[in-house]
Specification:
There is one protein chain. This protein has two domains: about 180 residues, 2-Layer Sandwich (Bacterial polysaccharide co-polymerase-like), CATH 3.30.1890; about 220 residues, Rossmann fold (3-Layer(aba) Sandwich), CATH 3.40.50. About 30% of the residues are buried. A hairpin with a 6-residue loop joins β2 and β3. It is about 50% helix and about 15% strand. α5 packs across α7, α10 runs parallel beside α18 and α11 packs across α13. The protein has a nine-stranded mixed sheet, sandwiched between helices. Strands 2-3-1-4 form a four-stranded antiparallel sheet. The radius of gyration is 49 Å and the shape is rod-shaped. It is of the alpha/beta class. The protein is built from 21 helices and 13 strands. InterPro entries: Bact_polysacc_biosynth/exp, P-loop_NTPase.
C-alpha cells in the first residue's frame, strides 16, 4: 500500500502551492488580525496627518536672441535643461523668493521655503514645472509663483550681467584703438604717406567691428522665459485620501497576516497537511470521516440509511479487505495517538459492523481495560450482558465474556467487552488473549482489537506482535508530527505494520470540555480503591509510559507460557 504515498510525493508544483496556501488559510484569526491592524493604521494615518495642497506652475526657458522673428532664429540653442533644473532649486532662487515673500510671509527661511519645492522637466521639452506643497491652498499658490518668478529674475540678471561684461570687454579693446586712430589722424595732417593712411584705415575697420559687436549685444532680447502656466490655488488636498489609505492599509495588513500565518505554520508542531501525515506515519490515508449532524452520541453509523459516515466506514473496510497485508492475517488493531479514545472506539465498532455486512465472522475485542465503556455505549444493540467471574480475578477476562452485537440491516458481530482489572499487563499478555487473536487465522473471520492510545499507555505495544496490522485514528489538528514518527518507530520495533490512517473531524473547544466533564463523572463511579481509569490509587501515569518502559514494557512470552 505504498502507491498513495508515492502519489503524494509526486505532486506537481502548483498542487504544492495550493496545499501551502490552504495551510495558511487555517489561521484565519491571524489573517483577520493583520487586516484589522492594517485598516486601523491606514485610518490613523488619514485622520492624524495634516492636509497638504500642491500648486503647480510651468516656465518655458529660452536664451537671449537678437531677432526672434528672423528666419531660422531659435531661442533654445545652448540650453542645458538639467543645469537649469538645478538652478531652479538653488539657494540663490530661494533667497530672491524669500525676499519677495518677506512682506506677506514674514520669517520664512530659505531652507524651509525650498523644502516644499519640486521642479521637474517633462520629457523632450524646455519646460520646468514648479510644484509647491504647503498647508493651505493660498500659501502653496503664493510660494510656487514666487519661486517661478525668482527663477526668471535670476536668469534675467545673469544674462544681463553676461552682456554687460562682454560690452565692457569690447569697450576696453576699443579705447586704445580709438586713441591710436586719433594719434594717426594728427600725424597724417602734415604728411601724405601711404603707410599712415593704411594704418589709419585698419584701425577704423577694427573700431567699426567692435562697435558693431557692442551694438548687437545691446540689442539682444534678454527675456529669460515665460510663465506658461500660472499657479492657481488647489481646490482639493493632495496625497492619499481616506479610501486609498484604507485600501493600502488592508493590503499591507493582509500581507502582515500572511507573514504571521507563515511563521505560525513553520513553528506549528501539528500535522500541516495530508502529505505530511502520510510521510510522518509511513502509511497511506485510508479515509477521512465526515462530520454528521445529529450523530452525536450514536456509536454505530452502519445501519443508518443515507449516512455519509457509514459509507466512509464501508469504503475503509473494503480497502482493508483487499489489502494484501491485512488479507493474509485478517487481524486489526485500532488505536489513537494519545488523549481521547472515543474516535478509535467508533472506528473499531463501525469497521466490525462493515466487515459483518460483508459476510465475515467478526470478533471485536475491547482491550481497553482502564476505561472500558464499549458495552455500555452500544446500549440495546448488545444482546445480553457479559458474565464475569469473581471480583479481583484477573483471569476472568476475557473468558466467558462474549456477547452478540446486532447491527440493523447489516448482521451481527461478536463482542468481547473489557472490564476494569488490577493487573492490565498480565491480562493483555495472557494465553486466552493470544488464542482469541489467533481466531483471525480461520477462513472468513476478522479479529479487531480496540486498544488504548498508543502514546498514553503501553497496552497497544503488548498486542502489536500478535495482531501486527494497526490502524491509527486521529484528528490531524491535534496530533503532532513527532507523535506520528514515534508511533511508526514503536509499531515497527514491536513487529507490527501501520496499515493506514483514518482521520476524523475534531470537536470544538466547548464540546471537548463537555466530554471531559462527562468522562470524569463517569470514571469517578468506579470500584472503591481505584482511580478514574480503573487502576490502583496513585498509579496514574503522568507522562508517556513508552518512554520509560520501552518496547519491553510487557513480557509477552511469559504471558503465552
Amino acid at each position: 500500500m505504498t502507491h498513495p504515498i508515492r502519489a503524494l510525493e509526486e505532486q506537481d508544483e502548483p498542487a504544492l502551492l495550493r496545499d501551502q496556501f490552504r495551510q495558511l488559510l487555517r489561521y484565519r484569526a491571524l489573517l483577520a488580525v493583520g487586516v484589522v491592524v492594517g485598516l486601523l493604521g491606514g485610518g490613523w494615518l488619514a485622520l492624524s496627518s495634516e492636509a497638504s495642497y500642491t500648486a503647480t506652475g510651468e516656465v518655458f526657458v529660452r536664451n537671449a536672441t537678437s531677432d526672434p522673428f528672423a528666419t531660422g532664429a531659435s531661442a533654445d540653442k545652448g540650453i542645458n535643461i538639467g543645469s537649469e533644473r538645478q538652478t531652479a532649486v538653488s539657494d540663490a532662487v530661494g533667497t530672491i523668493a524669500a525676499r519677495a515673500l518677506a512682506r506677506r510671509d514674514e520669517g520664512v527661511k530659505v531652507g524651509k521655503l525650498l523644502a516644499g519645492l519640486q521642479v521637474t522637466n517633462p520629457p523632450n521639452t524646455l519646460v520646468l514645472r514648479f510644484s509647491y506643497t504647503a498647508r493651505t491652498p493660498a500659501l502653496a499658490k503664493q510660494r510656487a509663483e514666487a519661486l517661478a518668478d525668482a527663477y526668471l529674475e535670476i536668469r534675467r540678471e545673469r544674462t544681463e550681467n553676461s552682456i554687460d561684461n562682454m560690452v565692457d570687454g569690447y569697450r576696453a579693446q576699443l579705447k586704445p584703438l580709438t586713441e591710436q586712430r586719433d594719434k594717426l589722424a594728427g600725424e597724417s595732417a602734415g604728411t601724405s604717406g601711404d603707410d599712415v593712411t593704411s594704418a589709419r584705415a585698419n584701425l577704423v575697420v577694427a573700431i567699426s567691428e567692435l562697435s558693431r559687436k557692442i551694438s548687437e549685444l545691446r540689442a539682444l532680447d534678454t527675456t529669460p522665459g515665460y510663465l506658461n502656466k500660472k499657479p492657481v490655488a488647489p481646490e482639493k488636498p493632495t496625497g492619499a485620501g481616506l479610501p486609498l489609505l484604507l485600501g493600502l492599509g488592508g493590503v499591507v495588513g493582509l500581507a502582515l497576516g500572511l507573514l504571521l500565518s507563515w511563521v505560525r505554520l513553520v513553528f506549528d508542531p501539528a500535522v500541516r497537511s495530508t502529505r505530511e501525515l502520510v510521510r510522518s506515519l509511513g502509511a497511506p490515508l485510508l479515509g477521512t470521516l465526515p462530520k454528521e449532524r445529529g450523530s452525536q452520541g450514536a456509536l454505530l453509523a452502519i445501519g443508518r440509511s443515507g449516512s455519509r459516515l457509514a459509507e466512509e466506514y464501508r469504503a475503509v473496510a473494503f480497502r482493508l479487505a483487499y489489502d494484501p497485508s491485512f488479507e493474509q492475517r485478517r487481524r486489526l488493531l485500532v488505536t489513537a495517538p494519545r488523549g481521547d479514545n472515543e474516535a478509535a472506539t467508533a472506528a473499531a465498532v463501525n469497521l466490525a459492523a462493515a466487515f459483518a455486512e460483508m459476510g465475515r465472522d467478526v470478533l471485536l475485542v475491547e482491550a481497553d481495560l482502564r476505561t472500558p465503556s464499549l458495552a455500555r455505549d452500544l446500549g440495546p444493540a448488545v444482546q445480553g450482558r457479559p458474565r464475569w467471574a469473581a471480583e479481583g480475578d484477573d483471569r476472568a477476562w476475557p473468558s466467558d465474556s462474549r456477547t452478540n452485537v446486532d447491527v440493523p440491516g447489516s448482521g451481527a458481530f461478536t463482542l468481547i467487552a473489557g472490564r476494569r482489572i488490577d493487573n492490565v499487563p498480565r491480562a493483555l499478555t495472557s494465553a486466552p488473549v493470544s488464542r482469541i487473536v489467533a481466531e483471525g487465522d480461520r477462513p472468513g473471520s476478522v479479529v479487531i482489537v480496540l486498544a488504548p492510545p498508543v502514546l498514553s499507555y503501553a497496552d497497544a505495544v503488548a498486542l502489536i506482535d500478535r495482531v501486527e496490522g494497526v490502524v491509527v485514528v486521529c484528528d490531524p489538528r491535534e496530533v503532532h508530527r513527532s507523535d506520528l514518527e514515534r508511533i511508526r518507530e514503536i509499531i515497527g520495533a514491536a513487529g507490527g505494520t501501520v496499515l493506514g490512517t483514518l482521520l476524523h473531524p475534531g470537536r470544538g473547544r466547548f464540546e471537548r470540555r463537555a466530554r471531559q466533564k462527562s468522562g470524569r463523572r463517569r470514571t469517578n463511579g468506579g470500584r472503591p480503591g481505584q482511580d478514574g481509569r480503573g487502576g490502583p490509587e496513585g498509579s496514574e501515569h503522568t507522562g508517556d509510559p513508552t518512554e520509560t518502559l520501552g518496547l519491553r514494557a510487557f513480557d509477552t512470552s511469559a504471558g503465552r507460557r
